[in-house]
Amino acid sequence: MRRPSSRLLTAAGAAIGTAAALVAATLSTGLPATAGPLTRPKDSGAQELGDPVYGVCRGTNPRCYHDWGNFDPAKGYKILVYSRTAGPRHANLGPALGAGLNPPLADANVAQKALVKMGQDNGFGVDWTEDVAQLASPSTLFRYNAVVFMSTTRDTLDDAAQTSLRQYMRGGGGFVGIHNAFGTEYNWPWYEGLLGGANFYDHGPAQPGTVQTVDRRDASTAGLPGRWDFADEWYNLVPFPSQVRFLASVDEKTLAKGVAGNMNHPGHGSLHPVAWCQYYDGGRAWLTTLGHDAKAFTDDGSAFAGARQFQSLVLNGIESAMGKKPFCR
């Protein structure tokens, strides 16, 4: 992957010290460490916790969520999987998809097909697209309890889709970012905040490692062991996630090939997060950097260690983001 712009890295460097300081406070209190005084907007009656970096209500406090009645559980649950790439394309996505909603999927479209089957097996609907026009209207997105960015790449949204996604989240929508969702929309600060105030910087060699389940109380990590083997690219992040609930991390000591990528990031030491959650600008956001290998989505764990744990993490993360299960608790 190409290096982010120098302007972004300069801004990231300025913010990372603040982000690191936020982590300890977030872990100890579960509340945004920089939250200002509560205010009550006249138009909604919702209490807001302001964020000085991204200018939105974000963190682990459910008062940041806008429960404005846009989703009716009685109508069931449904997600939209978006996998458009405007740069390098992960092999597990297969060939680019045709225009429109739910175009034909080839056998090589492994990740998309796996999420479709996940929905079939667990009682929620799944639509899929790589057509940015399908994201151009908030009213269209409100048909879905969550929007899943599956290894999207670079500038994958136009102006209309950016506005639509932002309004959708402000109306209580759910967002799930998987793997290279972190290599997307680098120069859009709101999206960086949606990811937890984080971006992809680089990664070391794809290699086995041990995932540590940091928070086993959350719905997305329920039933996972404290430690489990897995193989991935182990993304290094700049900025470092802040004001989030960390759910899982990789034990860097188990990475035999080290953490340094082609831009020589030193890694994150004792807390190298791979999954977390937060409320953001009215909605729910559940994130994981995992998901590089196609087998992680399809194997039963007999040939790809940790595949079943990864699939459980993603399934429960999706179901929590769309409100089918408790979120970020």
UniProtKB/TrEMBL annotation:
Top-level taxon of the source organism: Bacteria
One Pfam family named in its UniProt record: ThuA
Residues annotated as domain ThuA-like: 109-300
Signal sequence coordinates: 1-35
Gene3D superfamilies reported for this sequence: 3.40.50.880
Keywords tagged on the record: Signal
Protein name (Swiss-Prot/TrEMBL): ThuA domain-containing protein
Upper classification of the organism: Bacteria, Bacillati, Actinomycetota, Actinomycetes, Streptosporangiales
